[in-house]
Amino acid sequence: MLKVAIIGATGYAGEELIRILLRHPDAEIVHLVAKIEQSCPINDIFPWLKGLLDVECKNEINEEEIAKNSDIIFLALPHRVSMQIAPDFLKLGKRVIDFSADYRLKDVTEYEKWYEVSHNSQEFVKESVYGLCELHRKDIQKARLIANPGCFPTGAILATAPFLKEQLVEPDIILDAKTGVSGAGRKPSTALLFSEVNENFKAYKVCDHQHSPEILQELQAFSKDKLSLIFVPHLVPMNRGILSTLYMKLKKNISVFEAVDVVKKFYQDEPFVRVRPADVFPEIKDVVHSNFCDIGIKIVDKQLIVIAAIDNLVKGAAGQAVQNFNIMFGLDETLGII
Amino acid sequence: MLKVAIIGATGYAGEELIRILLRHPDAEIVHLVAKIEQSCPINDIFPWLKGLLDVECKNEINEEEIAKNSDIIFLALPHRVSMQIAPDFLKLGKRVIDFSADYRLKDVTEYEKWYEVSHNSQEFVKESVYGLCELHRKDIQKARLIANPGCFPTGAILATAPFLKEQLVEPDIILDAKTGVSGAGRKPSTALLFSEVNENFKAYKVCDHQHSPEILQELQAFSKDKLSLIFVPHLVPMNRGILSTLYMKLKKNISVFEAVDVVKKFYQDEPFVRVRPADVFPEIKDVVHSNFCDIGIKIVDKQLIVIAAIDNLVKGAAGQAVQNFNIMFGLDETLGII
Amino acid sequence: MLKVAIIGATGYAGEELIRILLRHPDAEIVHLVAKIEQSCPINDIFPWLKGLLDVECKNEINEEEIAKNSDIIFLALPHRVSMQIAPDFLKLGKRVIDFSADYRLKDVTEYEKWYEVSHNSQEFVKESVYGLCELHRKDIQKARLIANPGCFPTGAILATAPFLKEQLVEPDIILDAKTGVSGAGRKPSTALLFSEVNENFKAYKVCDHQHSPEILQELQAFSKDKLSLIFVPHLVPMNRGILSTLYMKLKKNISVFEAVDVVKKFYQDEPFVRVRPADVFPEIKDVVHSNFCDIGIKIVDKQLIVIAAIDNLVKGAAGQAVQNFNIMFGLDETLGII
Amino acid sequence: MLKVAIIGATGYAGEELIRILLRHPDAEIVHLVAKIEQSCPINDIFPWLKGLLDVECKNEINEEEIAKNSDIIFLALPHRVSMQIAPDFLKLGKRVIDFSADYRLKDVTEYEKWYEVSHNSQEFVKESVYGLCELHRKDIQKARLIANPGCFPTGAILATAPFLKEQLVEPDIILDAKTGVSGAGRKPSTALLFSEVNENFKAYKVCDHQHSPEILQELQAFSKDKLSLIFVPHLVPMNRGILSTLYMKLKKNISVFEAVDVVKKFYQDEPFVRVRPADVFPEIKDVVHSNFCDIGIKIVDKQLIVIAAIDNLVKGAAGQAVQNFNIMFGLDETLGII
Question: Which residues share a beta bridge with A177?
Fold first, then answer.
């Protein structure tokens, strides 16, 4: 039984991580920390945990105490906060899975530009592994520090990589993404009040979303051409899920069946990527509460349309983190998440 | 054309008041004030107003300037704030319609108990008129200060008063009310985030809601018996509307047809109360975006069930305020709200 | 590994049963039947099952074939349909868990009145066991035919029984219940279209809901007085969950702490009933996707208010069915549902 | 006072038309017809109309009787049904505004391909005017038969036409559109049940939506190049509104300010098109319940992003129909819809 610490246990991703780990046969939650007024049983904060989990949620991080009896530290923290904390655990010899963007971008200049902050632990950026399991499984196995991917990048990269790898598409990618509201986190906010979001729909951070460099970093590795990305996120009045509609131009004519085969082959041994038949598309309800990324494809003339659906809190956050954890510790990759 | 000032223009009730007054043939909005960082055109805050209203929304109240060319001051402010401001306008000879609870309760001790604050303008409590138009029309005509009713009390009182007046029911009233989320206002909040409210349903402030004394004050006037009220509000994942389900015991056997007639007679000349046939009940969608209060009735043995539906922002706030305004200035009572 | 057949696999309760059984370590789904145009893999109907379940869903019931290699038959069928099918399986020596109302009411006259149909297998009504596990565990262990409780009765009975058993309350019970929309089933309908339900809220079948006799049957067993029930269901714009707000009059003054203790004691060994501290109430999100029934209590004078929350598809249908299944086959009662 | 008949009064567009006309100072509803079991007062079907409208809704069309005292016939009917009925009214000398697609496509072959039916009144296709007021105002003034535009085309055409007219963009247009659920109409359906749509999001009819030819027909008129359209509609869990996100490639570099000016100039005298400042985008809540089309623009390199928001039932259906009506009868174009 591996011992788990979760720092940032009361955000949506932290809560989802607890939910998943309760079903994980080889993991035991031993430490919980969150930014709360005072320490209390986690099930006082989340009454749904009554009778299921009785761990105290602390309001301060005692790194040494946590490190002493934890096998893995999950940091479900906001950008900019993780990099204040991750180094301590790494220096104490612990393995860390970080949900924030702090160690995702290999180009620190890009990070500092998009997140408007100086990076204070650049020495760990280099060794961190981008935790998109389908692309970096080998590196994940031996990683000490996993930069768990962002929610938008997970679907977008999985849907696009196979076509770039086969050099089938032009380097200009349009990503029209639609996300549920939990992606914005559990912080007091006027813009995210129920009455503001419900019965509304909008684009936001148009071509200005901080997940853009992360998508480009990962996809550029597959492409000989210099990629460009037009990324327009939209907010859907629902709790969970991201549907990414991708538009790419094919370099040459291929059939939709060939296109489906390209993706199927790329993910042939992957337990969490499901490819639909030609011209059939996934919906959010096909993946919600699951770690799957479902992909559908259509071609009209040389226009390629790829739609990917994930649950932003599972494959887009806590589920993928557990998938990384399973890989890191040599467990069956699907434990607790299928 | 009567000139209108709105203090608190950017809350849900203030916004709804603007919406209604735009359609009012005899009212012109001339002053807007709100708690905003800096003054700006109101249509910068509410883009839906582009091309419809071009008034500057100020971030400070200049009472003298506002009083100079306003015929009526609407205070769409939170409890405790109104009473800091209303007296200034009254002293300047202006008529005021106050959306808050500050002048609703004639018993100041009750006010101070429920709102946990000292009342600082008790001299105006006495002369204020509780603006439930169907009950206090005559007093409203000549009032200087209207205490616009709370959203829950509006439906609950209208549904109950006819039965109490006829001494038909026992004095123990159960009010199981269900409200849309806009009733909670437009303030940053974690508990009211979309992801917290959506796909959830809960009771809150069980037998502890500050609208209780207001309901009792108004209903007690009709009853020889000392009334008791069990009031359980619930939060519905929808933007607008309050459905109030009331349970009362009949003192003697009457038929549901007699009961319907009691209510129809009570409201026979009222433009905004609609009584359904026996055993037929109103839904929120029957009244949303309207100033109507719809009422349905059923009797099982001696148990009387009355259901009232209103739009909390219209008949429960801004619409009723305009109805009061129309009455105060001798206009057709339905102007702008039918 | 016990072999499971599900008849009615494509309704909301049937789908939820599949979801639960996939996680059940001792159950294997071997037969699926539904009212569909033609037989097909179940994961063609529910794409979320791709990679998880590959069983064919048949469009006809072959009782003999199903009986041959099934240990248990779940009938997730509408009222009136189950009683056409259950007897065949019983006669073939199979155990049956029926989700419909067909075998819940011991008084067949009541059944025929409420469901407006003649009962055609009255011989099995007598031996059927009402599958509210907390009340009938012993009988369930050896039952051949379980009448799985209705969704409204589950919460209402659990919340009320302890007080009736202790003879603490008057016999007049008011149940103001609020349900998510999945309770209405997956049939084409205009009244249940998204645009009809969303941003709406209403009461329906006021004092006329077919679950009333079932609640009375079970509760009457605890009471010396003849009970009366006022039951007003309401429809909430959310997918899942039932919140039941119950109003009862205490026969004598007791404190809320005593009341909480009464319920805690009644359910002291129950894995799926959680009692909140005095004056603290459960919300739908505390129980959604779980088999728990959470209960909160408040007392004002002699008025007792009890609120119970369940997930209508889990504790109110498929989860409770699996709980019954676990009990029937001597398994750990929480398998697959905790 | 002009006399109005509405055929198809109980669908979402018909209901919205009633709502709008109630506020129209120069229109009076005199005839209502719908596909209902038996004729009844319209306010029995829509209780929100109690006290507001007392017209009988007939369940059969008596063309002669209706024509006798109607100035205008609105057909709020499904595709394929309108063309059975419109000719009768036209032959009786009446003017008709048709909500369906039956007279929108000048190329009857295209119509027959997309709607899979033979067109049975081709003689009227030629004289019909496509009722997008901003493009065809002059023809609308004297038209006998208006083909009221589809909901998707309204926003998409308005957002694109100015750029095509100035020959600024390449002929390949990507339209990623997101619609509320009322666009699908009020017919019994399993796919549109609340529990199917809520907490879900999906693409549908990908590159296969029947509004495609209508968009191309209108836009082609502005372009020297042969246009191609990639149109991917998505279903949003909300009642009303369409947000259209359009992607086009600029032929030459222009600034976003120039682009905004192009659109502002195109619509300089239009009462119902509002253009946002550069890089600012409209949301659904800016236009809901209004007849406005709001447009926002951004440019990244030579990629042009245009977002248009409308209310599908107002500018996308009933509001635009009234705008057409106002134009046809020489009224102020904004009567009843501002």
Answer: A233, A244
